[in-house]
Design goal:
With 166 residues, the chain is mainly beta. It contains 2 helices and 9 strands; from the N terminus they run ααβββββββββ. It is 5% helix and 51% strand.
Length: 166
């Protein structure tokens, strides 16, 4: 599996990341019932990191874990776990259905779940920016919806959260 194939999960991963709201300093949305904030996800190296394998094929499953930071290399804000299943391969284009959970440090409390069908090019150095739908959560995020914009940023993924909780 190539590094690009693994990095797509950095929702960061893919697809989906974790956040400490106190550390990430969320900004309340204009309606007073949501949050907007940015964190930086960095993949936690797993077994086999840096090794190449056969090209992905439909049915392949991969996982990604990230640590999240307030700034690049700054204070740790949380963590995420993402699982992706390859659902389509056409040449170097791969579609992966990714589901992730963000574990939050600090308040408000709870977890955020997210999902996306991410298309990436296995020949590219880094994946393109993509949006991940927030599908729900627990605790203070039991009615959460919105999206996360994930953008490559060097060794990190910039994760812009836009959450509504009503």
């Amino acid at each position: 599996m190539t590094r690009t194939f693994r990095r797509i999960g950095a929702l960061g991963a893919c697809t989906v990341a974790a956040v400490a709201f106190g550390a990430a300093a969320p900004v309340h949305a204009d309606n007073g019932e949501g949050f907007e904030f940015t964190v930086y996800a960095k993949e936690v190296p797993g077994e086999g990191t840096g090794t190449s394998g056969p090209p992905p094929k439909a049915g392949d499953v991969f996982t990604v874990a990230d640590d999240l930071y307030k700034t690049k290399g700054g204070t740790k804000a949380g963590r995420d776990g993402v699982t992706c299943a390859v659902v389509r391969v056409s040449g170097t284009q791969v579609d992966a259905n990714c589901v992730g959970t963000f574990v939050l440090n600090g308040g408000p409390g709870g977890q955020i779940t997210a999902q996306a069908l991410v298309t990436f090019d296995t020949s590219a150095e880094a994946p393109s920016a993509y949006d991940v739908a927030i599908t729900g959560g627990t605790g203070d995020f039991k009615n959460a919806h919105g999206y996360v914009r994930s953008t490559p940023d060097g060794d990190y993924q910039q994760m812009e959260f836009h959450i509504t909780v009503r």
